[in-house]
Amino acid sequence: MKRKVDFDIIVIGGGIVGLASAYKIARHHPGISVAVLEKEQQLASHQTGHNSGVIHSGLYYEPGSNKAQTCVSGRRELVAFAKEHGIPYEICGKIIVATREKELANLEHVYNNGLENEIEGIEKIGPNEISEIEPFCRGIAGIRVPCTGIIDFTEVAKKLAELIEKQGKNKVLDSHEVLACDKHDYFTDVLTNNGTLSARYIVNCAGLQCDRVAKMSGSEAKIRIVPFRGDYYELTEQAREKVKNLIYPVPDPELPFLGVHFTRRIDGSVECGPNAVFSFKREGYGKTDFSLRDTWDALSYRGTWKLFCRHWKYGLGEYARAFSKKLFLRGLQRLIPSLVADDIKPGNTGVRAQAVGANGKPISDFKIERRKGSIHVLNAPSPAATASLAIGDYISQIAAEHFNLKD
Q1: 374 backbone φψ class: left, alpha, beta (φ>0; ψ -120 to 50)
Q2: End-to-end Cα spacing for the chain
Q3: H/E element holding 109?
Q4: Rounded-to-integer distance, Cα 36 and Cα 78, Å
Q5: Going by C-beta distance under 8 Å and a sequence separation of 6 or more, which residues neighbour residue 307?
Q6: Across the chain, what does the average pLDDT equal?
Q7: Residue 256 to residue 103: CA distance in whole angstroms
């Protein structure tokens, strides 16, 4: 006789992707039971809770990619979700600004991407329009993106958890760190610091720990999570008038990260940044945080060194800015020349879970893989929070097929 399991599906990871996946599975299959396990005492403690709060348009991403498709549809669904549940948000728009002639070709590429991805309302703007939209910003050309917005993704995560638990026997359990997965023929025992729970199927949405959770469940990931810390400054209260909404630089496709930008948050504060430096701890938000295990895992991986060799000059510049307010300010002044040192103060910090292949190339698109009895989200960087509900739909569809869900 088969042993009775505690839940049909256990989702590992209480960030916004894990919660959105559990929410969509529970909604589409109300006859099954779902549990979400989060190791911290609060949900959304890591990437979701350290997110910039931007509702991304989907402008940058390669047409036809999972990122492009889920970001655009996920953005629209996220706004509807926020409206339905009374979560504060604002569609304030943003501008992408070129400050040098050599950026114009990349700006044109971004604009054409936006057209292919059917981003509503985008338009090219010149120096006068840039100054009209953002009076303190200076640039030679730009793109206005009116459908970009701001929100508190932690509040979205909390609402998702509430809705999950309202339905059936579903549970969202914090303080449940997954220590091991013991696979059997038709179920898996998930060992946590708070006891053992069993499930027929596992969905791994563990973010910064996703490659380790995959290995625990017997599915060796062919990538490695390499953590990158992003440090932000914040405009002082007196300087907030210098940024009305969101100001972004033109991305360089040869570099793995976007570069510093200005983000007004839903609470009225304005973030400046981030830089992007290798983190010696996967969940290390301080500049000197260190974990021997995390450092060894990253630096013993061939792909990490290939990545460093490819971008060593960029990396040194980012490290210099991490420890020099003057250099960080200089990067910000490219977009807002009138900023001075007294206008900025240390702000938030986040750590990005960047999946890197053995060839040293960052995985650019979302990476979701299925294994026997499990689904693994192995790469979900920005714009995953914006796209979370659409990613949840995608994972729910995979689960229905892969797990043969009946309800």
Answers
A1: beta
A2: 23
A3: helix 104-116
A4: 20
A5: 226, 256, 356, 360, 361, 362
A6: 95
A7: 16
What tokens appear for 103 in the block? 């950026």
Structure tokens at 214: 């995959």
pLDDT band at 318 (very low <50, low <70, confident <90, very high): confident
Distance CA 379, CA 207 (A): 8
Tokens of 94: 């943003």
* Cα–Cα distance, 253 to 405 (Å, whole number): 41
Query: Which H or E element spans position 367?
Result: strand 367-371
Domains of the chain (ranges; CATH) run 7-48+154-223+364-402 (3.50.50.60), 224-239+253-362 (3.30.9)
What per-residue confidence (pLDDT) applies to 407? 63
Q: Which residues pair with 248 in a beta bridge?
A: 96
Instruction: Tell me the pLDDT band of 1, cut-offs 50, 70 and 90.
Output: very low
Residue 310 pLDDT > 70:
yes
Residue 363: count other Cβ atoms within 10 Å of its Cβ. Answer: 14
**330 vs 151: CA distance, rounded Å:** 28
C-alpha angle 103-104-105 in degrees, rounded to nearest 5: 95
CB 31 within 8 A of CB 399: no
Q: Which one, of 197, 176, 232, 166, lies nearest residue 4 by Cα?
A: 197
- Per-residue pLDDT band for 224 (boundaries 50, 70, 90) equals very high
DSSP string computed for 187-223: -EEEEETTEEEEEEEEEE--GGGHHHHHHHTT---SS
Q: Is the dihedral of CA 378, 379, 385, 390 positive or negative?
A: negative
- In the three-class reduction of DSSP (H, G, I as helix; E, B as strand; rest coil), residue 346 is classed as strand
CA–CA distance from 112 to each of 59, 143, 153, 387 (Å)? 9, 11, 29, 21
> Please, are residues 23 and 113 in contact by the beta-carbon 8 Å criterion?
no
Give 363's pLDDT tier (boundaries 50, 70, 90): very high
pTM: 0.95
